[in-house]
Amino acid sequence: MRILEHKKENRRGRLGRERSRRLLPKPVEVGEEYDVDIRELSRRGDGVARIKGLVTFVPNTKPGDHLKVRITRVGRRFAEAKVVTETANE
């Protein structure tokens, strides 16, 4: 009975969710550039923008900044970027 419960947990539980997350394609790739608006600050003090729904951290920025950024790292649930140029707010 214990073995059967363990198999059910693996089939429906944590392992199944982890597999499905890994198969989803990322909306951004390293080296791509985007125009973004910084909406908030992270706990570390980095600016936070969303690119196609993906949280993107941009160091040395603040809410209200409108920037062109280049993606430097893509993680499972977030990306990191650096500022390429600061653009004027329209």
Describe this structure as you would to a colleague:
The radius of gyration is 18 Å and the shape is globular. The longest helix has 11 residues, at 2-12. Strands 1-5-6-4-3-2 form a six-stranded mixed β-sheet, with no helix packed on it. The protein has 90 residues and is α+β, with helices and mostly antiparallel strands. It has helices at 2-12, 14-23; strands at 33-37, 40-41, 47-51, 54-58, 66-74, 78-86. It has two helices and six strands, in the order H-H-E-E-E-E-E-E. Helix 1 runs parallel beside helix 2. The termini are far apart. It has a domain at 26-86: Beta Barrel (OB fold (Dihydrolipoamide Acetyltransferase, E2P)).
Radius of gyration: 18 Å
What is the CA-CA span between the terminal residues? 65 Å
Mean pLDDT: 83
CATH fold name of the domain at 26-86 = OB fold (Dihydrolipoamide Acetyltransferase, E2P)
Q: What is the helix fraction of residues, given as a range?
A: 10-25%
How do the strands of the widest beta sheet line up side by side?
1-5-6-4-3-2
Strand content: 35-45%
List the total number of helices: 2
CATH superfamily of the domain at 26-86: Nucleic acid-binding proteins
Structural class: alpha+beta
Quick one: CATH class of the domain at 26-86?
Mainly Beta
Largest sheet, in brief, is: 6 strands, mixed
Q: State the low-pLDDT regions, or none.
A: none
H and E order: HHEEEEEE
DSSP, total strands:
6
Identify the overall geometry.
Answer: globular
CATH architectural label of the domain at 26-86: Beta Barrel
